[in-house]
Structure formats: C-alpha cells, structure tokens
Amino acid sequence: MSHLSDTQLAHLKKLLLDRRRELQEHFAQNNEENSLLGDSLRISTGELSSVDNHPADVGTETFERSRDLAINDSLEDELEEIDQALQRMEDGTYGLCVVSGEEIPYERLEAIPFTAYSVEHTPRKEISGDRPVEEQAMTRPPSGAGEGRQKHTGRFDDAQAWDSVEDYGTSNSPAMAAKRDVSDYDDM
After folding, report:
1. In the chain, how long is the greatest CA-to-CA distance?
2. Per-residue DSSP letters for 89-152?
C-alpha cells in the first residue's frame, strides 16, 4: 500500500507527463541541430575551413558544442528516469526508495517527481566523458609556453599599447580639435 493518496499520485503523474512532453518536444525541435554535434567543427558550422577563423572563435564554438552535448546527455538521462518513474507507478512501487525500500516523502517527489531514491541513498552523478572531436587532434602546449612571452620580445604591453595607438590620433587629437574649432564658428 502506497503512502501517497490518489490525488497526490495523480498530481505527480501529471508533473511527470508534462515534463516528458517538454523533453520530447525539445529533442524533436532540435533533432537536426543536435545531429550535427558529433560531426567535425567544419561540418557543423557550415564553414569551408576553420583555419581562417580566429582561434577565439574556434574555442568558443568548441565550448558551445561541449556544453550542448552535456545538456543533451543530462536531458536524455532525465527522460529515461521519467519513463522509469512512470513504470514504477504502473508496478505500484513508485514513491519507494529502490535501495532501502523506505517511503520517499511527498515533498521530495513533488520537487523531483522522477526520483527513485531517498535523500540518503541518492547516487552521485557521473560527468560525461563525451568531448568534441576536435579535442582528439589537440596537443598540450610545451611547458613554459606563453610564460612571459612578451617580456623580452620587444613588443609592448597594455600600458605601452595605448601610447602607440594614441600616436595615430584620438578624438582629442589636433585634427579633431581643429574640426571642433570650425564648428564653433558655425554657431555665430
């Protein structure tokens, strides 16, 4: 006999079915886009080559793809857990911890309707190992790479960069000041 009333079970089943429908719609709407996540960066972005792109653009795209893969993995896991919870409702074991057999409080089920565990027996989540295919070709930089690379190269640092750029003119440079002086006469 379940510790949950029929009203509570109906409410929890509605929550599960609503979330299941949301997840199915997500995967249906994003099916074409998501199918490209496992492809190479060149194919998924539609670019002829990623060589001409700035490294930061490629890095951003790689990050976005790895994030999307992780989100989709998480949502797929949630959809599977929802299906399992609905099956436990059919079996009459919904609301009981699958490890200890103790009753899961209604408040917990309302917050996480697909849970199969009491708080004490909830397993730790594993982090997905799926990574973008580009990472297979990446190598780690040699040790010391980048450390003080501009220190002795004769290049300027951020403070000197402004001084060099300012030589080419700013909104306060003489050419701009002369233009302002002419416009001052227009007001007369």
Report:
1. 94
2. HHHT-TTB-TTT-PBPPHHHHHHSTT--S-GGGPPPPPPP----GGGGT--PPPTTTTTTTTTS
Q: At what angle do helices 55-91 and 6-29 cross, to 10 degrees?
A: 150
C-alpha separations of 133 from 39, 80, 138 in Å: 7, 26, 10
Percent of the chain with pLDDT over 90: 36
The predicted model scores a pTM of 0.57
- What are the pLDDT digits (tens) for 96-109? 999 999 999 999 99
Distance between CA atoms of residues 7 and 12, nearest Å: 9
Q: How large is the average pLDDT for residues 74-97?
A: 94
